[in-house]
Specification:
The chain is α/β, with parallel strands linked by helices. The protein has ten helices and 16 strands. An eleven-stranded mixed sheet has the order 1-8-2-3-7-4-6-5-9-10-11, with helices on both faces. It has a four-stranded parallel sheet with strand order 12-16-13-15. Helix 1 crosses helix 6 and helix 9 packs parallel to helix 10.
């Protein structure tokens, strides 16, 4: 159904907005809602038509799977097969910003479009109260990729969602800025170890400690989970990395001692930088400058995930 931007409502999260969102999801429509990582575009994961509307709204490639959000580990076990390693990870990090890629159960009820034809499913138990309330109210597993047009900057505020998907979806639940500001860590459990498929708020070292297993390489060139396509996270303007000062036509994102037009973290705090990353990329993309530059970010801890996003963004940015 065609919409214009005014057909996308933005409502503050609360009981009335939650009821509206649940009714839309029951009708097969996607709804934008905050998680602790970024805003997600949630739809009934058991309905192929609802999932297709998510792909249509995002313009998402059909071979890129979606993360399914559930209320607790018991719900996750109903759609995915857990081994001892997966159980250990769930016990340590759920609810929270960890996605597990596990074998899909037969008769799980999950729509085939969700897994993009793979024999595995990406599943997460979120911690954010808005997403948890929506899961509880709908009593459905919810497929929820980031609430932005595919390949573009992820949304950490309701206004980012509106700028990217206005006119494509009926409702955005506004819960303010997200806490982590970067997508979940994605892990695949393998017989010989644990593979990090996407870096995120939970560091690889923490995964290794929680499982006592070796970290193994992901399968090169194989899409197993969201966020593995090279063209994700790109602004429309050219992006230059490792800049220490702005050129005449650049909007500079600073960090630590390099202030720039705006700063990820004056104190050099990498967690603060991750939370502000997409927000400042949006601001830079909307500025009157032709290009974007960003100062170097330390590649340690969550800084590795930040740099992973920035390298993809620079490689596929416009211009």
């Amino acid at each position: 159904m065609a919409r214009d931007n005014h057909d996308t409502r933005v409502l503050p999260f609360g009981d009335a907005a939650l009821a509206d969102a649940a009714a839309l999801i029951a009708a097969g429509e996607p709804v934008a809602v905050a998680t602790e990582t970024v805003y997600g575009l949630a739809a009934d994961a058991t309905s192929g038509e609802a999932v297709a509307r998510v792909y249509a709204a995002k313009g998402r490639p059909g071979f890129n799977p979606l993360i399914v959000h559930v209320l607790d580990a018991a719900a996750a076990r109903r759609i995915a097969r857990f081994d001892m390693t997966a159980e250990a990870l769930a016990a340590r990090f759920w609810p929270g910003p960890l996605t597990l890629v596990l074998p899909l159960r037969e008769n799980s009820g999950i729509a085939r479009l969700v897994t993009a034809g793979l024999p595995t499913i990406a599943v997460r138990v979120p911690a954010h109260p808005a997403m948890r309330a929506l899961l509880e109210t709908t009593n459905k597993p919810l497929a929820a990729p980031s609430a932005n047009a595919s390949g573009r900057i992820s949304a950490t505020r309701a206004r980012h969602v509106l700028a990217s998907l206005g006119g494509r979806i009926p409702l955005i639940l506004d819960s303010g800025p997200t806490a982590h500001g970067i997508e979940s860590t994605i892990v695949a459990v393998r017989p010989n170890g644990v593979a990090i498929l996407r870096l995120g708020p939970i560091a690889a070292d923490d995964i290794a400690r929680a499982t006592g297993m070796t970290l193994v390489e992901a399968h090169a060139g194989k899409v197993e989970a969201p966020g593995q396509l090279a063209g994700h996270y790109a602004p429309t303007k050219p992006l230059r990395l490792d800049a220490t000062e702005a050129r005449a036509d650049e909007w500079l994102i600073g960090f630590g001692p390099v202030r720039g037009d705006a700063t990820l973290s004056v104190s050099g705090d990498l967690v603060e930088a991750a939370a502000r990353l997409f927000d400042l990329l949006h601001a830079a993309d909307a500025s009157d400058r032709a290009r974007i530059a960003i100062t170097p970010i330390a590649s340690e801890g969550i800084g590795r995930a930040i740099n992973d996003r920035l390298m993809r963004a620079a490689r596929n940015s416009g211009g």
